[in-house]
Amino acid sequence: MTRTETGPPPAVAPATAVEPGPRGEPPAWARLARRLVEANVAVVTVLALFTALVIGAILITATTPSVLHAWSQVGSAPGHAFYVTGATIGDAYGAIFTGSVISPSALGHAISTGRGWTGAFNPISETLVKAAPLILAGLGVALGFSTGVFNIGAQGQLIAGAIAALYVGFAVHLPIGIHLPLVVLGGAAGGAVAGFIPGILKARTGAHEVIVTIMLNYVFLDLLTYLLTSRPFQQPGQSNAISRTMPATARLPHLFGSTLRANLGFVIALAAALAVAWFARRSTLGFSFRVIGANQRAGRTAGMDVRRVTVLVLVISGALAGLAGTVTLSGTDFFLSTGYGGNIGFDAITVALLGRNRPLGVVLGSLLFAALDVGGASMQVATGIPIDLSSVIQATIVFCIATPMLVRELYRLREAGGGSIQLFMKGWSS
Amino acid sequence: MRLELAGITKRFGSLVANDGVDLVVEPGEIHCLLGENGAGKTTLMNVLFGLLRHDAGEIRVDGETVEFADPGDAVRRGIGMVHQHFMLVPVFTVAENVVLGFEPTRRAGFLDRRRARADVARLSAEFGLEVEPDAVVESLPVGIQQRVEILKALQRDAQLLILDEPTAVLTPQEIQALFGIMRSLAAAGRSILFITHKLKEVMAVADRITVMRLGRVVGTARPEETNEADLAAMMVGRSVELVVRKAPARPGRDVLELSGLTVVDERGVTVVDHVDLRVRAGEIVALAGVQGNGQTELAEAITGLRPVTSGSVRVDGLDLTNATPRQVIRAGVAHVPEDRQGDGLVSGMTIAENLILDVYDQRPYARLGSLDLGEVRRQAERKLVDFDIRAASPTVPVGTLSGGNQQKVVVARELSRPVKLLVASQPTRGLDVGSIEYVHRRIVEERDAGAAVLIVSSELDEVLALGDRIAVMFRGRITGVVAPGTGRERIGLLMAGMEEADLPPSAEGEDGAVTALDLT
Lengths: 430, 520
Prior knowledge:
heterodimer, A: mainly alpha, 68% helix, globular, disordered N terminus, disordered C terminus, B: alpha/beta, Rossmann fold, 3 domains
């Protein structure tokens, strides 16, 4: 800020300026070149992934005994040290890929022998299974964020949805064509009720949704623990905290045969992503969500009901999280146990951030996170490198996305002209 | 301390916030800096306090030219500032707040609370600022918190104290107490620079007055040489003459009827005080007054944005007291809000989207809860032409437009519905001359089409040019309703709080003050 003298502006334009084209715009190649060196969304995301892989590689180098051993003898065999390092990193990342997408060798084997298809396609199937609930819960969180409502309660809403879906599952006896849709609707309704609580509290009393949703996570976690040891939820004849199982009519059908776990849950997740995209862009209610997310005062002045929108956002967000709980229950787990849902509700926040609150972004981000989880497990089995490496890569990606300034400085990118990256967490305290 | 500002100029891009400002504050003087919001007072103080760097001019303290790189430099030269929004730690005690940043310490860095308390007690006694040193700041009333801010400045040995709109948050009793403190500080040889837009306060406390308008100093006076009416005219006058071509109004039935309208704001201050006002179909009533006298709150109460404490709002016979903004809009009220970027537009969304903020869920834009994006775009394209909005396409974000074009988007949206009543607050603030003319023409057209129009403006020229009748507000009350031919001096007196009944019969001998009977 401090300027000691008022000098004339520099007479020479910066050397990086591109000559304007005939229509006053730089030529297409120059615009493309500029887009690649400015900190726009795509470039930062790709560089974040790249940075994470580099940091992962450094960690592998620094922690794998065989690599460290090779470097301790670098004086006698320098080439060997480099070779071991490269091979170890290559093996690790290779294992993540083959463990989460497809294994070329298993595929080749299946093609040549006509058997073992399951093994070849199991990795991608597992990734889809893991991605489905992340997509659903992530969509809910993203919808809230873009409306200026911070729903940190996806975990609790997911559990509420799963409890409701389980109840509809074992308490009702119907043919699958009716039963399964009822289970899915029940799960969404359970999540919606869990979202309604912080919504109505915020609208009526101004209670901050961040506090309320975080606390409700514990409420639903403990509610589940209680239900698991009491009738009618506890598995009859069991003393452990385990629920009844979903009957066959309440289970989501497999997509690619009974040996692969990929199920209709992934299709539900994709359909939800399309629905949310339509909702945000084309529906009148979604329009009011966007207006209030961007400028609540203008929405109010134009006659929008801010309280109603606040409640509805949390209800829809909760319903999506409830669906996430339903697809894990009806798709792969079939019963509930204590601590159900693991970390999905919190990973959903990360995925929403990674996907910049856009439905397509959430889908892609969820697939990436699911692949890192699934592939990380394979890597640990294949190479002995701990699965925690996957978490480090995930964390580094998010870290870079959340601090675009860091990526910009790291890669000397210039500031994006239009549509620059903005952190969505504005108005946190409002 | 003798402070001299000479030729201070500060630009923000093309906007000149301070244009060659000269100001002298003598030792022991209470100097008032008077001007409307946006006149450049706060910019000038930020320059003086080292928060902004001026582009030209000099600051002299006791004859010596100084350069302030940051507020620390200003404090070291004996300048203290009490900001409009207090900079206190709410959970600390008074003594802790006062010494914050300059803490007296004992050996090993322990805070010397006893000395802190003693310092506060000594300063309190010296200047008559009663404060309990051990009270926790958040438990204190606003007036006392302000004293803590003043003590903070005195503890740093401020010889010149800048008070930025200090009375805005105070009750009348607290204001009197503050004036007492200011006088005792001045008597002790400290200089005070008091920033305000309230005329009464200036007349009550100032030794000398400097009036700013649009970044320039327009005059300096002593309170005994001037009066509130002159000061009001100086503050709001405009050098560009406005001419609005319009036929005489042909007023019809009453559309807006306010009776006994009273609004008490969040702080418990009565900002609109038993206002009775009627606006008829086919006429423009311009609400004049120095800003901050309740005009904004009055407009917000009519449009459903602010709760009405008592009294009633009727539009075309329909009771809209405490109706929701949506009900008010559906009743045929168009509203051009004062803060177009805060209340009128969503700057990140497109022009087309901003044009449907109030009708997004109605035909032809929506069917069965789904937006017809093609129709939204087609209508927007038509409005770009109809309302002369200069933009490349309806899909550009509205925030990228100039102020004039942004305002045209607001006007286009509000006038695209059937309008019985148009409420427009500061409709031309910050606009270029071309846009001002355009907005005025649309307002007159709306009147001629039979709408009742209420304009809130602190630009006296706009009020005189547009109004078919002029209502003047002062401290939440309407002090008079006059015809547009009334002289500026007369309106100035009303703006300064004189009741119309107290004024001598119209001295100009023209059609002034004839419509007082319209005030029920």
